[in-house]
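re: ur question from earlier - yeah i can do the single chain one, its not a big deal. heres the input i used so u can compare w yours
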Amino acid sequence: MTHIETICEHVASTDYTDLPEAAIAAAKTFVLDTLGVGLAGSSGPKAQELVTLQAGWGQGTDARVWASTQRLPAPAAAFCNAYQAHNAEFDCIHEQAVAHVMTVVLPVALAGAERLGGVDGKRLLTAVVLGVDVAASLGVAARSGLRFFRPATVGAFGGAAALGKLLGFDKERLHHALSIAYGQLCGTMQAHTEGSLLLAMQVAFNARNAVVAADLAAAGIEGPLDVLEGRFGYFTLFEDGGDLAPVIAQLGRVWRITEVAHKPFPTGRATHGIIDGCLTLQRRHGFKAEQIGDVRAVVPPLVHHLVGRPPLPAMAINYARLCAPFVAARALLTGTVGLEDFTDAVYRDPATQNLASRITVEVEDRGDPNALTPVSLSITLVDGRTHELRLTEVYGHPAKPMPREAQLAKLHQNAALAANPIPNAKLARLIDLVDDLENVDDVGHLVDQLVP
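and the output i got, formated as tokens:
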């Protein structure tokens, strides 16, 4: 079989009983996390305008938009919920793949499950785990830096695989679903470079397109077959080469959902090593922000490319979330970085701008264009003392995980910021449902807790 055929065979033949406990537990963890950041994202820039636009482009009651009274056709609901899940840069990530692997997969799977009705928790968990396997495997196989926005492109493949699994596709039908998804891939790094709102919309486009791809495949539409390694395939056009063989060999043995990392802060994951290092040194040595002379971060090329941008007194919100000197300054001044830090008043804050101007980000190239670590920090105080640290794992990574209480605190904070805040009783019910997801008879009950 070709590599894409092997991927489709893996998705088609894997059942819930094949999933190890660690994969099921991780899937529950990141289902809950993704729903939480999707709630907060409902009050993000232009989120409500996008819901209104989608409602004007087609009528239907397939699925619901999180934190909204709006029902939409499944592709439109997936679009809105994926946008909400990514617009605050708070969504989980597979670091080696450099991809937010749940951000397309879960909105697509839940929209499809609501449309189907009666989808139980075991089916959703299986679809999510397999969708993440597909998305992350393609990212891990990449051997070049990002040209297209990988979370969006691999997300389309993962979303189509997850919905195809819920629809009961065999491996041939799955192959066509992934092929049709490939024909609709979009999203370049220019939006990331400029800090444009289009960045999160690129994730949303691919969520919508994943639903469309699965629906077309279900209707018997066929696509080209060699869409990964063909002359004009994914690893030729969207990536500058890839090595699928070792990744394919791990299917069914390495479950990529267990490798996913939390984001403790609503910023690009590439900033997290710098934030984590700054806060660790501050806790360890007890200095205050006003005692800092300068901060020097030495990072891999990808980190510098993604977040090594200069701080400005006036920034678009997406630019600010991806500005390492700004978010590191906020962390050193306040002890954390939160959603409340991304306002015009905070950008202009003299203490923040002053400290951010003294934080430099430099490159150490170790030959891996997709590496987010190691990160080295050096903080020199005004009295001449210097404190240093080198991180190979960053807070939120499975090797350095967020404790359960921190995960739940993040969920509660996100829910409180929803366009329609979620009552505590509903949030408690959501936590119980996800914790016991394998015994839930209809995953529509999860969405019941997300809407007014």
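The chain has 21 helices and six strands. not sure if urs matches, ping me
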